Amino acid sequence: MIQWMKRRKAYKYFFPIEKQLQYLKHVHFLMSHGYSFKDALDHLYYNTDYEAQTKEIITAFKRGDPLDKAFEHAMFHHSIVAYLQFSHAHESMIDSIKNCVDMVEYRLSYIEKLKKTIRYPLFLLIIIVLLLISLNRYVLPMFLDLFQSHASSSKTLLLSISFIEFITTFFLVLLLILFIFSFIWKKYKPQIPIEIQLNIYKKIPFYRSFLTLYTSYYLVTYISMYLKASLPMREVVKQLKSHDRLTILAYYGEEIDMQLEAGQSLATAVNQLYFIDRHTKGIFSRSMDQSSFEKDLSVYAVFLGEKIRNKLVKIIQFIQPVIFSIVALFIIFVYLTLMIPMYQLIETI
């Protein structure tokens, strides 16, 4: 009964990330026109689309919860909550919300581009797979009966049937494995020690390079943010350790702190981190004052953000031609499967 009530509550207060973005935009708009955060919430409370979320945030603030915890109670996306946790401590609330809006818009724009890119090719691929299954189940056996007196035609059809069975079985088994793995990973990931998770990530070539970019980006972004607020490096490391949502960053904060406690330099500590790119390590290795260090990190954070965007664009541009090529190969295969036995039969006449 208790679990059912929790699920019901979660369902009641959950709303799509697109609406979360609109909510943040409304809050920022009201605050930029002179309203306090409390007054902005009061205005949104009477909007039926946001009543439940606003009520949760107001209740959380009355309990004394910080900004990120309040949005977490209102079932906002974890990336929004994670950003607010980092930024609000060292930015004004209106700047935190504005930067968060920019981050969510950037994320949604690439998700939408990816959906548009793969939607039609994926639909075609599914149609082709269904066509292959139908061809293998109904059409080819009829052809086999028709050409059973001709050895060469029958042999070609048998090879085609075997190949289609292999392809369709492989495709379905792969989907099943991916579904089971995703379900298990999502359910048990919080229970897996972060060290084991990182060792698994190291064995996935493409994801490994992408995770390195993302981790480096978050590290340089948040350290530069804290340094801009004139925090000493030991306090910055302490802030990284306390982060409970970006687990890799929190783990790396602990690793850096352990190395500093052992008498190692900051550069040595960062150099031992696997998912930090070479240039980031180079910035930490250079001896400079805090102002120059913060400037270098801020500039490189912009560069990393652009690099991540370029990689995403390349992936999106790569996916569609690959899927179309696979679809084209399947169409050619179906055509040859049907036509070759006929030509072989004609040659024997």
TrEMBL record:
InterPro entries the record matches: GspF/PilC (IPR003004), T2SS_GspF_dom (IPR018076)
Pfam families: T2SSF (PF00482)
Leader peptide range in chain numbering: none
Main location: membrane
Subcellular location: Cell membrane
A GO cellular component entry from the record: plasma membrane
Top-level lineage group: Bacteria
Alphabetically ordered keywords of this record: Cell membrane, Membrane, Transmembrane, Transmembrane helix
Membrane topology: Multi-pass membrane protein
Residues that span the membrane, as ranges: 120-139, 159-185, 206-227, 318-338
Ranges of residues in domain Type II secretion system protein GspF: 26-136, 221-341
Protein name: Type II secretion system F family protein
Lineage, broadest ranks: Bacteria, Bacillati, Bacillota, Bacilli, Bacillales
